[in-house]
Amino acid sequence: MSDPSAKPWTSALILSLVAAGIILSLSMGLRQSLGLFVEPMVRDTGVTVATFGLAMAVQNLAWGVGQPFMGAVCDRFGGRLVVVSAAALYAAGLCLTATGGTFALYFGGGLLIGLAVAGTSHGVLVGIVSRLASPTVRATAIAILASVGSLGTFVIAPVAQAMIGGWSWQTALTVLAFLAASMAVVTLLFRRGSSPAHQAASAQRVDARGAIAEALANRTFVITTIAFFACGFQLIFIATHLPNFIGICGLPPSVGAQAIALIGICNAVGTMVAGYLCQRWGNRNVLALIYLLRTAAIAIFFVLPVSVGTTLVFAAAMGFLWLSVVPPVSGLINSLFGPTNFGTLFGIMFFSHQIGAFLGAWLGGLSYEWSGTYSIGWMSLIFVGTLAAALQLTADGGESPRLQPS
Questions:
Q1: 321: how many CB neighbours lie within 10 A of its CB?
Q2: Host H or E run for residue 67
Q3: How far apart are CA 205 and CA 119, in angstroms?
Q4: What is the mean pLDDT of the chain?
Q5: For residue 20, is it within any domain?
Q6: Among 214, 228, 236, which residue's Cα sits nearest to residue 349?
Q7: 338 in helix, strand or coil?
Q8: 3 state DSSP class of 155
Q9: Host domain of residue 145
Q10: CA 290, 295, 300 angle in degrees (round to 5)?
Q11: Can you list the pairs that 273-276 forms with residues at least 24 positions away whose Cβ atoms lie under 8 Å?
Q12: Which of these, 38, 81, 91, 90, lies nearest to 59 by C-alpha position?
C-alpha cells in the first residue's frame, strides 16, 4: 500500500480548496464592494459619510470579536456549520441595509455582516485547508486560497456599480444578498478528514484556552499581532473611503469600481508571490516588506495629483499587497503551533487587525466631516504603516513549533 503522504494533493483537499476559494471570493468581493454604496446612500437616505464610516467600523469590530469564536467552533465541529450560519447572516445583513436608515446600516451592514464575514473568511477557511493539507503543500494551498479569494472583488465590484447605476442601490444590495446566500450551497463540496500530520497533532491536542495562553507567551506571536493592527487600519480605510475620496477629486463613480476590481485581480498575483517569497525569505521578513511597500504606495498616492491614471496605478499596487499578508501570517501560526488550533489563534491575532480596521473606517469618516478632506486619514496610514514595518522586524526570524507534538 502506498504511503498517504506520497499523495499530498488528495481529492478531499482539492474539493475543499475549491469550495473555500469560492466562499472566500464571494465573501471578500461582497464586503469590499460596500464602499460603492456611500454616495447613493448619503444622497437618498440622509446618512452622513461619518455615519457610514462608523457602520463599517462596527462591521470590522464585529468581525474581529466574532473571529476567535467562529474559529474555535470550526476547530471543534468543522467548517460547514459555521459557513452555512454565516451565509444566512450575510444575506440578512445585506437585505436589512437595503431598507435604508441609520439603524439598518448599523445593525445590518455593521453587526450582521461583520459576524458573517468572520465565518466566511480566512480564519475559518484557511483552518479547513490547513487541516487537510500535509506540511509539504500547506503553504502552497494557503497561497492558492488567498489568491483565488480575491477574484470575487474583480467581478462583484463592477457588477454592483452597474446595478447601482442601471437600477438602484437597494436592488443592487438585494441581488448581492442572494449571492451571499449561495455560499451555503457551496459547503456541500467540503470533505471531512485531515492529513496524517494533523491526526498526529490531534492525538496530543492542546485545548483552545491552553493554546491561547501559550501563544500570548510567545514573543513572535505577540509582535506580529500588534503589527497586524496596521494592516486593518490601512486596508479598511481604503476599501471604505477610496470611492468617495476620488469622487470628491472629480472622478466618476466608475473609476472607484474599476479601482476596487483592480485591487482584486492584482491581489491574486501578489498573494501567490508572497507565498513563494515566504519559503525563501521567511515569514517575518515578508510581512515587514509588505507593510513597508504598502506605506510607500500610500505616501506616493497622497502627494501626487489624483487622476484616473494615478488612482488605477495605486489600486494595482495596493491590490498586489492586499491579502499578501495571509501566507506569512498563516505560515507563522502553523510553524509555531501547528494547524490543530489554527482558527482560534488566527482569530486572536485577527482581533488586533480588526481594531485597526474599526479605527480606519471610523476615523476616515470623521476626518472628512471635521476638515472636508481625507488628508488626516492618509497621513495616519503612513505613520501607522511605518511603525508596523519597523516593529515586525524586531520579531524572531526563526519559528519553531511549540504546541505540536515532538
A1: 27
A2: helix 49-77
A3: 23
A4: 87
A5: yes
A6: 228
A7: coil
A8: helix
A9: 12-193+207-392
A10: 130
A11: 273/320, 273/324, 274/143, 274/324, 274/325, 274/326, 274/327, 274/328, 275/139, 275/140, 275/142, 275/143, 275/146, 275/147, 275/327, 276/143
A12: 90
Contacts of 6 (CB under 8 A, 6+ apart): none
For residue 397, the one-letter residue type is G
- Return the C-alpha cell found at 20: 473555500
What is the distance between the alpha carbons of residues 5 and 381, in angstroms, rounded to a whole number?
A: 45
What is the rounded (10 degree) CA torsion for 120, 125, 127, 133? 170
What does the alpha-carbon distance between residue 123 and residue 329 come to, in Å, rounded to a whole number? 11
Q: Which amino acid is at 38?
A: V
Cell of 209: 484556552
Residue 200 lies in a domain: no
Q: Is residue 98 part of a domain?
A: yes
C-alpha cell recorded at residue 248: 470628491
Count how many domains the chain has: 1
**CATH code (residue 321):** 1.20.1250.20
Higher pLDDT, 1 or 109: 109
| Confidence class for position 397, pLDDT limits 50, 70, 90 | low
Please state, in angstroms and as integers, the Cα–Cα distance from residue 302 to each residue in 10, 152, 247, following that order: 47, 27, 15
Give per-residue pLDDT as tens, 267-308.
Answer: 888 988 988 888 888 888 999 999 999 999 999 999 999 999
Cβ atoms < 10 Å from Cβ of 6:
8
Sign of the torsion formed by the C-alpha atoms of 119, 107, 100 and 354? negative
270 CB-side CA count, 13 A: 27
229 within some domain: yes
DSSP string, 24-59: HHHHHHHHHTGGGGHHHHHHHH---HHHHHHHHHHH
Q: 320 and 96 in contact (C-beta within 8 Å)?
A: no
The length of the chain is 406
CA trace torsion 245, 65, 95, 37 (10° rounding):
0
